[in-house]
Design brief:
Number of helices: 26
Strand content: 5-15%
Oligomer: single chain
Structural class: alpha+beta
Shape: globular
């Protein structure tokens, strides 16, 4: 973190969340709070609420919540430090300069200079041959090369390094990931003989590079010999190469092309997710600009959360081969875990999105997007292709492979619809499928994503825990003074157990409840916290004390009950020492 907690608190205390959010949205007074249509999902009735007294917001529709900083981060799509600077300027606060600031700036500057170097190489006369052939084959237009600031890394050991070391120290260039040390200890360029795709953050700063080896397009065969041997010295190099992670770049959290496509995604309320650089570039060039790529790594939950800020409507367009279909299935499962219902566009076998655009233009892409299937239908399609459904055994195998997917669907009406779809495709009675997933279905209905139990036996206990957690969030001083004898294991509900843990840990570290919530990465926990905090407190002090004492009494009773059972078991087993130890613990509880 670039700034101390004291600095962050100063900025938060200097701004009013109602004033901040009202500069973006029209807020209307609603009781003690303010209401508006949520900017993060489409709705007709306001479910977005802002509390001036608690300085938080929460949407009861989509579950988003947080403080003034998190609202601006999400709405403006800014990183934390830029948001803090913006709000500090708004409040007239001068933030202290940190040493880390200069390190970040240095890496940005090195990447910017490297991108300029690669760009000049692409435009120079020496960058002909394989590079020109690649650009022509891919149909990349001059203006597209400029838009994506594409470049070329020359076929030399240290061309870029020699250029950059005129202005920067070698160790700083190495931190940016542009050079590395050879087996002999010399600095050499990481990218050589590659078409270069600069990777930008959402604000347009160059943070990393992707490079595609040009040798793959010259002879039609993959090189065989190692770099250290004779012949082709790029032989052992991967086709695609990415910058390593750095202080300004994390490939698992970075979405390629979002600096250009974010506004288009928001406008279309749909994002087309592809895998590669050229896939994104080809679609964008064809006029399909609501596209983003998870280039350099498999699709992750971080990619999903980033894209979800712009639209909740995902269409996965991965390669049409088996590997692409499996990647699409993995990506859609990740999206489902983030409460997204993605669709999957099925490409003709053997084609990738780039090839589809080049062969059929924008219309071909629009058609596959129009015909995209919901995730579960796509999985059903895969199962039917994987097994021989012309035989009874194949149909049974296909049905069995789909049981976990069907059991995970929480909505019983939606689940029933997909069971019927499987029934019709595989000619198996829907009742048989329902019976086979009966146990799984009950588990799915009873437990949420976080293993949360909601059955009738747990509701009474869960309500007690909910009341206690609400009191903790509204009055954290109680947690410090009266709940010291509790630990996380005293909570049955896993969500409330987790909230109790992170709140008590945060308070011990000197954080406010708002700060604790802001640092929670799990969406379900963070949303549960913001929803509980947004609700008006209905407990007078005497009732709060009573609820706390009731819960503590309940915990002590449960502990006594557990010890009695253990004592009975130990007595039966004639283990006298263990029995006496348990008896002593029992006396302490009383």
């Amino acid at each position: 973190m670039l700034y101390s907690q004291d600095v962050i608190e100063r900025v938060k205390n200097a701004v009013d969340i109602v004033e901040v959010i009202s500069s973006y949205l029209p807020l209307k007074k609603s009781g003690a709070n303010y209401a508006a249509l949520c900017p993060f999902h489409t709705e007709k009735t306001p479910s977005f609420s802002v509390s001036r007294t608690k300085q938080i917001f929460h949407c009861f529709g989509c579950g988003e919540g947080g403080n003034a900083i998190s609202f601006v981060m999400k709405y403006e799509n800014l990183p934390f430090t830029e948001t803090l600077n913006m709000l500090a300027d708004r409040a007239g606060i001068s933030l202290p300069k940190k040493e880390a600031d200069s390190e970040f700036s240095k890496l940005y500057e090195i990447n910017r200079e490297a991108a300029g170097f690669y760009r000049k190489q692409l435009l120079s006369a020496s960058a002909a041959g394989a590079l020109a052939a690649f650009i022509k084959k891919r149909g990349i237009k001059k203006e597209t090369l400029e838009t994506f600031y594409m470049g070329y890394a020359p076929d030399g050991w240290d061309s870029c390094f020699r250029y950059l070391q005129k202005k920067f120290k070698p160790e700083d260039i190495e931190k940016a990931g542009i050079i590395k040390k050879s087996s002999k200890g010399n600095y050499i360029d990481r990218f050589r003989n590659r078409i270069i795709f600069p990777i930008f953050n959402e604000k347009g700063g160059v943070i990393a590079f992707g490079g595609r080896l040009l040798d793959y397009d010259t002879g039609g065969t993959e090189p065989k010999q190692s770099e250290t041997g004779s012949g082709n010295r790029h032989a052992s190099q991967p086709k695609y190469l990415n910058s390593p992670d750095s202080k300004v770049y994390n490939k698992s959290k970075t979405v390629y092309g979002l600096n250009l496509s974010a506004a288009h995604v928001r406008k279309a309320d749909q994002v087309l997710v592809v895998e590669g650089y050229t896939d994104a570039i080809s679609l964008y060039q064809a006029g399909i600009k609501n596209v983003a790529a998870s280039a350099g790594t498999a699709f992750t939950s971080y990619h999903c959360r980033t894209l979800k800020r712009f639209s909740g409507n995902f269409v996965m367009i991965f390669d049409g081969d088996d590997a692409g279909r499996k990647a699409a299935a993995r990506a859609t499962r990740i999206a489902m875990e983030q409460a997204i219902r993605p669709n999957v566009a099925i490409l003709p076998k053997g084609l990738d999105p780039d090839e589809l655009v080049r062969s059929g233009g924008a219309r071909a892409v629009e058609e596959v997007v129009r015909n995209a299937k919901p995730y579960v239908s796509y999985v059903i399609e895969l199962a039917c292709g994987r097994y021989d459904i012309d035989t009874a055994e194949g149909r049974a195998d296909a049905a069995r492979s789909l049981l976990p997917e069907l059991a995970c669907i929480k909505d019983p009406i939606e689940r029933a619809g997909y069971i019927e779809e499987v029934s019709q495709r595989l000619k198996i009675p829907a009742s048989d499928i329902r019976n086979r997933i009966g146990g799984s279905k009950r588990d799915s209905a009873q437990y949420g994503q976080y293993g949360r139990q909601t059955g009738p036996q747990s509701r009474k206990e869960s309500q007690k825990e909910k009341i206690l957690v609400r009191i903790m969030l509204d009055h954290p001083e109680i947690a410090a003074s009266k709940l010291t004898e509790l630990n996380s294991e005293d909570f049955d509900d896993p969500v409330y157990r987790k909230i109790f843990t992170i709140v008590t840990d945060g308070l011990r570290a000197g954080q406010s409840v708002s700060d604790v919530m802001e640092n929670v990465e799990n969406d379900e926990i963070r949303r549960a916290m913001s929803e509980l905090m947004m609700k008006d407190s209905v407990y007078e002090e005497e009732y709060m004390d009573k609820n706390v004492e009731d819960f503590l009494a309940h915990v002590r009773f449960r502990a006594r009950k557990g010890l009695i059972e253990k004592m009975k078991n130990e007595a039966k087993g004639n283990r006298r020492e263990d029995f006496l130890h348990l008896e002593e613990n029992y006396r302490k509880l009383n």
